[in-house]
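Changelog excerpt

This revision adds worked examples to the README so contributors can see how folded entries look when concatenated. The first example is reproduced verbatim below.
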Amino acid sequence: MIVGVDLGKTGCRARSDGGVEATGLGAPGLAEHGGVEAALRAVRAVLDELPDRAAVQSVAVGAAGAEAAPAAARELCGALAEAFPGARTAVTSDSVAAHVGALGGRPGAVLALGTGVVALAVDAHGHRTQVDGWGPWLGDDGSGAWIGREGLRAVLLHAEGRGPGTALTAAATARFGELRRLPGTLAAAGSTARTTATFAPDVVAAAAAGDEVATDVLDRALACWVALGTSAVRAAGVPELALVGGLASAAHPTWPADVHLVGAAGDPAAGALLLAQLDDLPHEDAVVRSGPVRVVAPRTSSVDDVDVLATEQSRPDLADLDTYDAGRLVDVLLEAEATVPAALAAAAPALARAVDLARTAITSGGRLLYVGAGTPGRLAAVDAAECPPTFGVSPEQVVALTAGGEGAATQAIEGAEDDRGAAAADLDARGLTDRDLVVGITASGRTPYVLAALEHARAAGAATVAVVNNPHSPVAAAADVAVEVLTGPEVLGGSTRLKAGTAQKIVLNVVSTGAMVGAGHAYGAWMVDVAASNEKLRRRARRIVREATGADDDAALAALEASGWRTKTALVAVLAGVGADEADRLLEEGAGRARVAVELARTLARTSS
């Protein structure tokens, strides 16, 4: 059993990988005196409530105060390891667990809005930036405690004749009693911030009823939220921002264009559970672990578990999308598409490895075999169809296999993506060999047809690449290289033909173009193997020869006609000053690379002279 624990100051909640939950009392925080002992008691108490406690393999705790007291976090981690012999233990801060849960372990920003407030940004390289979270004396701007305090200040100002009247006066009296005794009431409660925060719902309700004073307080709080969230998003380098906490649904501020609000994928307990399963998330340097670092649980979550995927979420800021006019709708869609480059940039290292594999496959006599279902399959079919005219290769060199067969390229075939057996059969029908590269494309990362294809390809010795839009998926785990382009929720929740599809098309462009350029199907930035099959392409061929060689149009045309309109042969002939037959011989000796063929000709010329 694998368990994640969300340990707060007021409560403690444990969740197992089987979906079993247990709750108990919290602890005052690791930074407090006796904090480690109190935290250990709280965690043990909730784990004792779980069935088969002895079967715990791994437990991760997101604990309040861990960030401020790293030594205490290490001590708690060791104490947990002693309490659960043989189990892997991990401790991190509650804010990190909340970030992992809200964004499913991917980079981005999370704004936690409760009694206090903190924004946490994590970029693709694991760098963390905290914005606010300094507590009620130094910060927590826009928090529940801040809203409650500003509301009470307005009440007291009115009572002294220094401010306008407000409905908050009656609300404060009803909640706290006589206003002249308010300081004592707050002090007696133990936690001034927590008690003050109980007044925040009254401020929100009064603002909703039209009270001008309460509206001013809430407007200023929303301005704080926007400032905090925007700062965190820009620090993360990823446009996604998730709001969590009790105040998250209290109001809906207007966010800048470069901030894209997303629904939280999970709560802090879900984040702690993910940290108990995986130790290769961007957050790892903020986690204290017992024992050697390793992945405790394989990335093989159920293919049926799609509801929690980021690409399946709906954006809460678009609840009224159907009321937008055309101009506003276009703005929203274009803003969403504009986030794709940042997601691609984060995946660039993996994409480069994919290009290397594709280049090796093409140059060794293998093929590029795309596998997809639905939109990814259709995008792959387009990319494969464009390779022969662009690069002069055989249609058999880049092939798209779509779940449901050729008919699925133009219409949806229901149920085809679930047919695992068809994947192996389709690859075998194409004569799969160990020189091929199989690229599986699926937004969810769980499509059975794609997963089975990659598994079959690896068993046959072929190289494999996964192109997915969610983190830590079964399809990614099944591939030699996983290109995870984390595009997040769509404008239409679950409609991954939108920005996820845009990202997939760009990845396919990069993989096929990178492979073909590396295999010698380009000279500089010119597509010298273009098939000059119509008047437009013949004009392009003439332009390529002119630009690449500096020859005039008559010389370029003569070289092309002499070579039978084979652009690369004509280019080598002009640059090397030889006829078409000699240009072909040089190209054959240079493995089809125009630059190598020209250098060979120049070397021969120097040697002969």
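The second example, added in the same revision:
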Amino acid sequence: MEALPHWNLQSIYPGIDSPEFNLDLKSLDGLVAAIKADLADDTGRKADFPLWLVTLLDDYQKALDTTETLYAFASALLTVDTNDERAMRGLNRVEEASLAIKAIHVQVINALGAYHEHVVAAIATDARIAPFHFVLQELLVEQEHTMSEAQEDLAADLCRSGTDAWGRLQEAVSSNVDALWDEDSGARKTVIQLRSLAFDADRSVRRKAFEKELAIWKQHEVAFAYAINGVKGTTITLDKRRGYRDPLQRAAMQARISDSVLDALIGTIEKNLPLFRRYLKAKAHALGLQKLAFYDLFAPVGELDKRYSYLEAKEFIIENFSAFHAPVGEFARMAFDKEWIDSEPRSGKVGGAYCTSFPLRKETRILANFDHTFDGVSTIAHELGHSYHDYVTKDLPALLRHYPMTLAETASIFSQFVVFQGALREASDNERIALVEGFLQDATQTCVDILSRFYFEKNLFEKRQDGDVMANQLSSMMVKAQKDSYGDALDEDALHPYMWAVKGHYYSSDLSFYNFPYAFGQLFGLGVYQLSQTDSESFGTRYDALLAHTGQDSAEAVAATVGCDITTRAFWQQSVDVIGTYVDEFCELVGYTGE
């Protein structure tokens, strides 16, 4: 196979120490000064409040775009080489400079709160401000959950050496630890390489990798336990001080969904757990097992031996994107041709995949770990969906461009499903089994496994209020969450007690309950795809409009623009029913007749 490309960041900044990077970093001082001047301009505010508000929002959004671009660049360098000391120093400089932005944010929303009635009037009467109606109302609610300026400033400063540092510890250890794999050769494998062996066709290899992975987590469990306790303890303290009912309330507000939407989503998944367990039992049947172990979840079924070169992956994605909506295909070709994708797995690079945005340049970049399989192709398609989403919104101001995590997965899930459908059209019978199983594997992860993580995090927050939760307790809680979600479909003696150490999402104070938005995205994306099948001629235009609107309103209102009522279980059930059709097909293909 050919050499896999690394991303080209030259159009963002020539380097972390470049004059361009330093100039933008220095500009934050001027932007903060400008915002402070706006806030102190009593004469301008009294003379023309709407104009004063427009000026304040413009300056504030420039600061947001600059901070996001600087942070994304430094983080991008660090994630492809977690040992890059220059990138770490650059990230620290950005974080230090961003403290002033976080502090000024508090002053901005306090000013909005102080002139609440004026803001509401301006929304109703001024065309320049009306597009910000939802965001401004959201900021007013946030202001009600804000501590004093001094307390918020202290909290932001302490997070750099507290929760943020705990998160970096988890990321650094996870991306660098390894284990002896072969005693004869002395070969070692990183934990990321071990986890990738969960896809191996040989069960003995999967089991060996799983056991060695667990041994690694066991070796580092104390460090991870203190880290997760530090993050969750800080989160509980700050959320309580800010007047939130609990961290879940704050997470739902960040996701721009109501409790009723979250209840409908979780309730629908819980109702349909027997469907997912039926698939898992059918998979066990196909593998000749009485019951799956955790390390069998990703075992291949069927024959999908095709290996994709990077060029083949590129052309396959572009072809299928273009068949749906020409602009999506054109965008994907541009992203490939301009080397926006870092696809080579290598030592020191974090696992998984993500898309990051550089708003000052109106560009994005994608990190992937391409392995020449269809799953690798699907992952790139997924991240290109995120990238296209950002492309559609790139000309919007910052406050209207930032969409919640719930809607962030819309384009990615949609894009992934488009590629899946394209692969099915070309598949032989054996390949179809593998493709359908791969789809169900992903769906089960984003519904059932996500549910287990949701259960675990709820339980962890409850336990953490009474003090530190030790590593053995954390593992017991994770096992219980997995039992409650997977039920009798998995061997209860072969679960993954250290999933709390694996997932970096748990180690962010700002992103509590990072889990349920993935389930939301999976099912909402499938729901949107179903809509596209009933209106294929004009749906591309409506799709772009939907993506463009995602940062401008609640998730419920955005969904309503394409006729989806996400407050009802009926909507979510329609999406699960799509998954159900593939469960039925898979059971038929592998000859499973049980329940």
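Reviewer comment on example two: The chain has a mean pLDDT of 93. The first strand starts at residue 178 and ends at 182.
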